[in-house]
């Protein structure tokens, strides 16, 4: 299927051509040279070799002597490179060609044409490295990137802005799903709507042999020449071609300025590789067709434009001259795919493609691993996908090797009756496929989401953790609950039941959307908050909240910020977000983090950026490890995504949070947490022993402001660095010591308790030195000391809560009884009861809590997990020492929201009314009974 380029065809005359000799006589006409002739014939009439060498020499020199010559410095120009660029322009229908150090360098040179404020439209099935570079220019250059499904030209229309759209980045077929993009139609459509936009095409998958996008309206084409153009995986190179002189001038300027032009020796190697491009591709492509048909016949889901049922076949045939040598296929099961990949011998496990040797890879764990799992899922990239890049080996050897790997992995077996290999039906794979369909159906139906996340206590390391010291913290059994209920009236509303029953609604369209730089699924939020959006929200959406209501202001700002920045494809889902908590707000138990986690999860769910996998049916259980009877159903990647965004909300509420609170609220349990960015090992590590401690938490009821306290310690550190640094070092030693003691199975319980108690005392003293204690906290310490118990402040201090260690030997059983029952006369002689009574008498509010329980929970959205008829549960018992009741909303009827709910499509009545109407005491039990909760 060798394409022919007629260099003399009207309107197509490339500047760099290899003219076909004039016919000797009209009777013996000459046909224009075909592609493989052009490839093999390196000839530049303007650069004749002085000795007539048949191969282009390597001018391995950095400088050239003399003044005024054609070459002076190899960064700006080198004869070997000139030969190469002339040759590439010739085979690409291009007037100009440039060669640089890699494919990514080629993209970088192109992206440097952008300036702040420009908008770029790019595909959503991109190579991980392209995605990474685009994210960089979004965050560092201020360019907006819209990721869209480019397989349908109409999807681009809403994103084309006549003045702002500066570039459209396309690739066809896409990698690794081999989706076809109509380069010709999109180029034409974009030019009509935004005449100045530059159409850029990544042509690596096809090479100029199979596709020349400049002929279809593209302005710039780039290739990773490391792939097919070189063909031997022995060099890295990038190629950029174009026809427009203005663009060529800019590209040449950048390449010369940054100095990333291809070296002479690599230019030589690439030139040599190109000579065999057509020959290699013909062989590779023919074998690929065989492999694709083989896998297709076995019943795998195969992605290759050469297959009759490929959806883009027609478009592809119009714009390309062949189907290429990359295909991908799905097995339905990631583990099975891993086995197949590991089982091949001839196919090398490697990233990249285009080499004469065949390669096999799993994009999700290799070439596309830099795109995070949630985005991969959102972009429909199957985790089990295997990519095959076919080389020039004997096709039979390749097929035999692949077949062996499929047999060894258990993917195919010999059907004796038919005497041929057939695919093994995999129940887990089938269940997963069915699950995918159900999830898509569930996504279409807008539903209510009920979320909860725990508060925390920090036992060691608060404040110090902000400055890179390890903190030891655990979840508590007091939680924040968030409920997102869809609305049909285009409004977004927030109801903060613990913040004076605050309620407000906004018309979604009137929010300051022009101030948003949307963040594509999977992209990172920039380190700094987007202050343009913060200011716009404060001025246009939150101006009515007075200074006296900081709590509502912070909570609304965090919620709206996430809602707007996470919005995608201009969907603007309308819903009500109601939040309420069994945690005391602002008392140092991480109410802000648990609220942030609920708000972030709600936005991620309604914007469909995270999914909940349906627990598998019992028949497929044996294939998949399920812990906690399926309660642990929220995938780690989903939890990490929530944690990232909850941290953004925490930044809004806290200024400079360490991240420990939101991490505990998402992951639950007990953990040692070290903030990244301080040049030492960071991250989280679970701590088992912590669970077995009993604590009494006492709220001093003195209000304080975490943001101010954290900033205060920061200011002290700047003023008295020696003092504060020595305190930070001492706290690090305390945390290390505590970690060692908690992990030591040999340490007798009594010694452990006294060690923890001594370390708590010490840590408290350091917090006093940092200036974050308060007379009320010292008074709680004195009261508990009278009972020989150790107490330290927990959280930000300045008021808030203190934590008291309760030795288990003496009062474990009683502790349990006390947690279950309201304090009554039965226990009044008991020491713990006495302590509680004294604290209450002094005006404090004690809580008995257990630590180390579940993190983020989401009520299962699947009907089989919902309990019917338990909506109007009456309170059965009063809960010990709950925060005060929240009054029913005034001047607002919850039915306004419920009326907008899509009653006919959901078999369950909305949770909204019982959620806002139940008392805070009955909330946890009610929530627990309405269905199955899925946890991290
Ligand atoms: N249940 C809730 N509803 C709404 N906002 C909340 C809730 N809990 C916490 N917040 C937000 O978090 C702030 C409290 O943060 P902070 O002072 O750090 O307290 P904590 O120590 O409990 O985390 C509140 O002012 C409010 O903005
Ligand atoms: C003081 C600090 O260490 C913990 C804050 O706890 P709280 O806001 O008091 O719950 C701050 C942080 O880690 O971000």
Automatic annotation (TrEMBL):
<feature type="region of interest" description="Disordered">
    <location>
        <begin position="1"/>
        <end position="30"/>
    </location>
</feature>
<comment type="pathway">
    <text>Isoprenoid biosynthesis; isopentenyl diphosphate biosynthesis via mevalonate pathway; isopentenyl diphosphate from (R)-mevalonate: step 1/3.</text>
</comment>
<dbReference type="InterPro" id="IPR006204">
    <property type="entry name" value="GHMP_kinase_N_dom"/>
</dbReference>
<keyword id="KW-0443">Lipid metabolism</keyword>
<dbReference type="GO" id="GO:0004496">
    <property type="term" value="F:mevalonate kinase activity"/>
</dbReference>
<dbReference type="InterPro" id="IPR006203">
    <property type="entry name" value="GHMP_knse_ATP-bd_CS"/>
</dbReference>
<protein>
    <recommendedName>
        <fullName>Cystathionine beta-lyase</fullName>
        <ecNumber>2.7.1.36</ecNumber>
        <ecNumber>4.4.1.13</ecNumber>
    </recommendedName>
</protein>
<dbReference type="InterPro" id="IPR014721">
    <property type="entry name" value="Ribsml_uS5_D2-typ_fold_subgr"/>
</dbReference>
<dbReference type="InterPro" id="IPR015422">
    <property type="entry name" value="PyrdxlP-dep_Trfase_small"/>
</dbReference>
<feature type="domain" description="GHMP kinase C-terminal">
    <location>
        <begin position="753"/>
        <end position="809"/>
    </location>
</feature>
<dbReference type="GO" id="GO:0005737">
    <property type="term" value="C:cytoplasm"/>
</dbReference>
<dbReference type="InterPro" id="IPR000277">
    <property type="entry name" value="Cys/Met-Metab_PyrdxlP-dep_enz"/>
</dbReference>
<feature type="domain" description="GHMP kinase N-terminal">
    <location>
        <begin position="570"/>
        <end position="669"/>
    </location>
</feature>
<keyword id="KW-0028">Amino-acid biosynthesis</keyword>
<feature type="region of interest" description="Disordered">
    <location>
        <begin position="867"/>
        <end position="892"/>
    </location>
</feature>
<dbReference type="InterPro" id="IPR013750">
    <property type="entry name" value="GHMP_kinase_C_dom"/>
</dbReference>
<dbReference type="GO" id="GO:0047804">
    <property type="term" value="F:cysteine-S-conjugate beta-lyase activity"/>
</dbReference>
<dbReference type="GO" id="GO:0019346">
    <property type="term" value="P:transsulfuration"/>
</dbReference>
<keyword id="KW-0418">Kinase</keyword>
<keyword id="KW-0067">ATP-binding</keyword>
<dbReference type="GO" id="GO:0071266">
    <property type="term" value="P:'de novo' L-methionine biosynthetic process"/>
</dbReference>
<dbReference type="InterPro" id="IPR054542">
    <property type="entry name" value="Cys_met_metab_PP"/>
</dbReference>
<keyword id="KW-0663">Pyridoxal phosphate</keyword>
<dbReference type="Pfam" id="PF00288">
    <property type="entry name" value="GHMP_kinases_N"/>
</dbReference>
<dbReference type="InterPro" id="IPR015424">
    <property type="entry name" value="PyrdxlP-dep_Trfase"/>
</dbReference>
<dbReference type="GO" id="GO:0005524">
    <property type="term" value="F:ATP binding"/>
</dbReference>
<keyword id="KW-0456">Lyase</keyword>
<dbReference type="Pfam" id="PF01053">
    <property type="entry name" value="Cys_Met_Meta_PP"/>
</dbReference>
<keyword id="KW-0547">Nucleotide-binding</keyword>
<dbReference type="InterPro" id="IPR006238">
    <property type="entry name" value="Cys_b_lyase_euk"/>
</dbReference>
<dbReference type="GO" id="GO:0030170">
    <property type="term" value="F:pyridoxal phosphate binding"/>
</dbReference>
<dbReference type="InterPro" id="IPR036554">
    <property type="entry name" value="GHMP_kinase_C_sf"/>
</dbReference>
<dbReference type="InterPro" id="IPR006205">
    <property type="entry name" value="Mev_gal_kin"/>
</dbReference>
<dbReference type="InterPro" id="IPR015421">
    <property type="entry name" value="PyrdxlP-dep_Trfase_major"/>
</dbReference>
<dbReference type="Pfam" id="PF08544">
    <property type="entry name" value="GHMP_kinases_C"/>
</dbReference>
<dbReference type="GO" id="GO:0019287">
    <property type="term" value="P:isopentenyl diphosphate biosynthetic process, mevalonate pathway"/>
</dbReference>
<comment type="similarity">
    <text>Belongs to the trans-sulfuration enzymes family.</text>
</comment>
<comment type="similarity">
    <text>Belongs to the GHMP kinase family. Mevalonate kinase subfamily.</text>
</comment>
<keyword id="KW-0486">Methionine biosynthesis</keyword>
<comment type="pathway">
    <text>Amino-acid biosynthesis; L-methionine biosynthesis via de novo pathway; L-homocysteine from L-cystathionine: step 1/1.</text>
</comment>
<keyword id="KW-0808">Transferase</keyword>
<keyword id="KW-0444">Lipid biosynthesis</keyword>
């Amino acid at each position: 299927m060798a394409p022919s380029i007629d260099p003399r065809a009207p309107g197509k005359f490339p500047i760099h051509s290899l003219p076909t000799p004039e016919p000797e006589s009209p009777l013996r006409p000459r046909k224009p040279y075909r592609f493989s002739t052009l490839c093999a014939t390196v000839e530049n009439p303007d650069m004749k070799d002085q000795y007539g060498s048949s191969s282009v020499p390597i001018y391995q020199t950095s400088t050239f002597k003399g003044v005024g010559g054609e070459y002076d410095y190899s960064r700006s120009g080198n004869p070997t490179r000139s030969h190469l660029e002339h040759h590439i322009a010739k085979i690409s229908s291009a007037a100009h060609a440039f060669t640089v150090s890699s494919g990514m360098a080629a993209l970088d040179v192109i992206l440097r044409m952008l300036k702040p404020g420009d908008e770029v439209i790019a595909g959503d099935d991109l190579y991980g490295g392209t995605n990474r570079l685009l994210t960089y220019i979004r965050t560092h250059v201020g360019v907006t990137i819209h990721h869209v499904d480019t397989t349908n030209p109409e999807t681009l229309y809403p994103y084309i802005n006549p003045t702002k759209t500066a570039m459209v980045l396309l690739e066809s077929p896409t990698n690794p799903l081999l989706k076809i993009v109509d380069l010709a139609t999109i180029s034409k459509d974009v030019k009509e709507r935004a005449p100045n936009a530059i159409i850029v095409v990544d042509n690596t998958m096809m090479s100029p042999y199979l596709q020349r996008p400049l002929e279809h309206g593209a302005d710039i084409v780039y290739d990773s020449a490391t792939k097919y153009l070189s063909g031997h995986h022995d060099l890295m190179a990038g190629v950029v071609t174009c026809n427009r002189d203005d663009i060529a001038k800019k590209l040449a300027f950048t390449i010369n300025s940054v100095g990333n032009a291809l070296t002479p020796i690599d230019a030589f190697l690439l030139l040599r590789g190109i000579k065999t491009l057509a020959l290699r591709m013909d062989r590779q492509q023919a074998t690929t067709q065989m492999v694709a048909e083989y896998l297709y016949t076995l019943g795998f889901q195969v992605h290759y434009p050469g297959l009759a049922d490929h959806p883009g076949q027609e478009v592809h045939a119009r714009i390309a001259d062949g189907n290429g040598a990359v295909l991908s296929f799905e097995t339905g099961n990631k583990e099975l795919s891993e086995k197949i990949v590991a089982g091949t011998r001839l196919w090398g496990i490697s990233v990249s493609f285009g080499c004469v040797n065949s390669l096999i890879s799993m994009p999700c764990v290799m070439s596309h691993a830099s795109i995070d799992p949630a985005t991969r899922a959102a972009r429909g990239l199957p985790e089990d996908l295997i990519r095959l890049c076919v080389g020039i080996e004997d096709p039979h050897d390749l097929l035999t090797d692949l077949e062996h790997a499929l047999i060894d992995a258990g993917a195919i077996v010999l059907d004796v009756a038919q005497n041929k290999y057939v695919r093994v039906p995999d129940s887990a794979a089938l269940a997963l496929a069915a699950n995918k369909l159900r999830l898509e159906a569930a996504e279409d139906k807008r539903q209510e989401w009920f979320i909860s996340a725990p508060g925390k206590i920090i036992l060691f390391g608060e404040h110090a953790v902000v400055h890179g010291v390890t903190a030891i913290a655990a979840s508590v059994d007091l939680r924040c609950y968030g409920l997102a209920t869809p609305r049909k009236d285009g409004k977004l509303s927030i109801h903060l039941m613990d913040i004076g029953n605050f309620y407000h609604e906004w018309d979604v369209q009137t929010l300051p959307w022009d101030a948003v730089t949307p963040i594509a699924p999977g992209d990172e939020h920039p380190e700094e908050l987007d202050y343009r959006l913060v200011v716009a929200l404060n001025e246009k959406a939150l101006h009515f909240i007075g200074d006296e209501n900081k709590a509502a202001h912070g909570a609304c700002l965090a919620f709206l910020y996430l809602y707007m920045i996470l919005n995608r494809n201009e969907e603007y889902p309308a819903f009500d977000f109601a939040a309420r908590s069994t945690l005391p707000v602002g008392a140092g138990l991480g109410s802000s983090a648990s609220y942030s986690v609920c708000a972030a999860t709600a936005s991620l769910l309604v914007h469909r950026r995270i999914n909940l996998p349906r627990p598998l049916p019992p028949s497929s259980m044996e294939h998949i490890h399920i812990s906690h009877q399926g309660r642990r159903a929220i995938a780690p990647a989903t939890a990490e995504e929530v944690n990232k965004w909850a941290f953004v909300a925490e930044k809004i509420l806290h200024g400079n949070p360490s991240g420990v609170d939101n991490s505990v609220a998402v992951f639950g349990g007990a953990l040692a947490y070290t903030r990244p960015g301080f040049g030492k090992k960071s991250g989280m590590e679970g701590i088992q022993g912590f669970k077995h401690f009993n604590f009494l938490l006492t709220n001093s009821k003195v209000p304080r402001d975490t943001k101010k306290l954290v900033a205060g310690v920061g200011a002290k550190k700047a003023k008295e660095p020696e003092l504060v640094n020595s305190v930070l070092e001492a706290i690090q030693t305390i945390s290390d010591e505590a970690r060692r003691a908690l992990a030591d199975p040999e340490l007798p319980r009594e010694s452990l308790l006294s060690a923890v108690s001594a370390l708590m005392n010490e840590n408290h003293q350091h917090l006093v030195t940092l200036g974050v204690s308060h007379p009320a906290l010292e008074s709680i310490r004195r009261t508990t000391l009278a009972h020989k118990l150790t107490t330290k402040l927990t959280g930000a201090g300045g008021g808030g809560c203190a934590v008291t260690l309760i030795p288990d030997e003496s009062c474990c059983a009683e502790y349990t009884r006390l947690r279950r029952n309201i304090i009554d006369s039965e226990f009044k002689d008991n020491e713990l009861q006495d302590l509680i009574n004294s604290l209450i008498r002094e005006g404090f509010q004690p809580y008995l809590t257990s630590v180390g329980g579940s993190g983020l929970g989401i009520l299962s959205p699947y009907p089989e997990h919902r309990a019917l008829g338990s909506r109007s549960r009456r309170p059965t018992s009063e809960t010990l020492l709950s925060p005060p009741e929240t009054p029913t909303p005034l001047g607002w009827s919850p039915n306004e929201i419920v009326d907008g709910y899509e009653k006919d499509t959901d078999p369950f009545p909305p949770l909204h009314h019982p959620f806002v109407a139940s008392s805070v005491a009955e909330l946890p039990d009610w929530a627990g009974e309405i269905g199955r909760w899925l946890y991290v």
